[in-house]
Amino acid sequence: MAETVSSQSAELIERIRNTFDEMALYKDLKRSNFISSFKLPSFMRDWVIKRFQDEDGEIDVDSATSFIREFIPKKDNWKGIMDRIVTRQERVRFLAKISVNIDIRTQEISFELPDFGLGYKDTVIPPDVWEECSDALLKSEESWGIVELAYQFASSPKEHGKIKLVSFRDFCPYIVDYDEFKTAREEFSFEEWVDIVLGAVDYNAAGYADMTQKLAVIQRLLPFVEKRVNLMELAPAGTGKSYLFGQISRYGWLVSGKVTRAKLIYDLSKRKDGVVAIRDFVALDEIREAEYMQEVEIQSALQAIMENGKYRAPDNHEVNVDAGIIFLGNISSSAMNEYQNMLVELPKPFHQPQFLDRIHGFIKGWDLPRMTDDLKACGWALNSEYYATIMHRLREDPSYRAIVDKLIILPPGADTRDTEAVKRICSAYLKLLFPNVRSETDISAKEFKKYCLKPAIDMRATIRLQMGWADDKYRGQTVPKFEIKEFD
């Protein structure tokens, strides 16, 4: 049996495995470092581990390694794959991320493998293959799956040969039962459920000092489950924020380094929406050094998107956005105090109250410990891909917001942006911590206030304080005092 270096009891392990069945696996990110060398995203890593893990959680390392090398190639292997396809005319199958392009002028359908630099101009999807695979390939802007490639010779001297898609099978090794997941919450206490959520996103709950630290981590998941939740997190380096936003969910996107307006918002030359229109959230990392945040076009576009989820491009095209925008940055320890101006080191937009007002909440990253091996998942946990898919599905469920609307009593004259910020954050907390709630009577007023409303108000209050530092006319303004309607 794999040695569990966590606080899980044998009884809890049995409940997790019985409740979630094949969606549960034994994670020990310290012992499975051999997979880390392949740089797989967590959702792919968990799938491989589960495939080669026995009932006791032991991994067949040799078989897993052989499988990864054969079916999940690195970028360094691409020339070898090209040689097999183009020179030797072999058919080659492997796991990859793929996106498709439909040419309006020629009606030709091509594909791109972004991780290998293979672009649309050098590829083709034959009509019969498109007929068979189009449903799977059109599910999202980018799809993970097993691609089978071959070479198609040029049909005339004026054309050139291309790599063709022979078949595609979507990467979805199991069926996600959304309602079953919500019901599963009832099998666990609040404390147990928090630990389960942490394990699902690769953290070891036993490594945290207390519930405050655990819930501080879960704050980062709010935009994973609720549409258009805009957040800012300032933190010391090494607290794991880049990993969580960049590796856990294939539905999000982390910007680290440079990014263009075309890639982020809208490509005017290609008339193609940017990533903000196709992802659940976009996390902009290292904002203190982000030169693109100085660009007026990007500033105005982000401000419009955060306000109403729309951006009107110069060619009059409207980009519709459901993604949350998350700003991440490291600041000096002396600036980590919400009662002073924390944003002096950040680019100009963060000195403008109208920009800050559109950020719904603030995460105090200094409440989180620096990442250590003790905080890496170690124990029976949910498959990250499964949980990321659940979080993606939760975004589409309006029932939680309806419950929040019934529970919160608005004071007279409440500011609309404050109200909307608090309600969105409350809805997200409800989804994460109490997914089994079906009506306003399924959660106590005490629990809702402690775990949903109060943290939502606190997160918004920090934004309000920073708006006051940006402009004196906002100084002293506070978040309205919301009350909770109690139901018998």
Descriptive overview:
With 488 residues, the chain is of the alpha/beta class. Helices cover 37% and strands 17% of the residues. The protein is built from 18 helices and 18 strands. The chain has helices spanning 10-20, 33-36, 42-51, 61-71, 78-87, 127-137, 178-184, 190-200, 211-218, 222-225, 241-247, 261-264, 296-308, 353-356, 384-394, 399-407, 416-433, 445-470, and strands at 24-28, 92-102, 109-112, 123-124, 143-152, 162-170, 231-235, 252-255, 266-267, 272-273, 281-284, 310-312, 318-320, 324-330, 361-364, 378-382, 408-409, 483-484. The strands form 6 sheets. It has a 5-stranded mixed beta sheet. A 5-stranded parallel beta sheet has the order 8-11-14-7-15. α3 (42-51) packs across α15, α8 packs across α9 (211-218) and α16 crosses α17. The longest helix is centred in the C-terminal third of the chain and has 26 residues, at 445-470. Residues 1-5 have low confidence and may be disordered.
Keywords summarizing the entry:
18 helices; disordered N terminus; single chain
How is the secondary structure organized here?
Layout: H1 10-20, E1 24-28, H2 33-36, H3 42-51, H4 61-71, H5 78-87, E2 92-102, E3 109-112, E4 123-124, H6 127-137, E5 143-152, E6 162-170, H7 178-184, H8 190-200, H9 211-218, H10 222-225, E7 231-235, H11 241-247, E8 252-255, H12 261-264, E9 266-267, E10 272-273, E11 281-284, H13 296-308, E12 310-312, E13 318-320, E14 324-330, H14 353-356, E15 361-364, E16 378-382, H15 384-394, H16 399-407, E17 408-409, H17 416-433, H18 445-470, E18 483-484
Parallel strand pairs: 4-6, 7-14, 7-15, 8-11, 11-14
Antiparallel strand pairs: 1-16, 2-3, 2-5, 5-6, 9-10, 12-13, 17-18
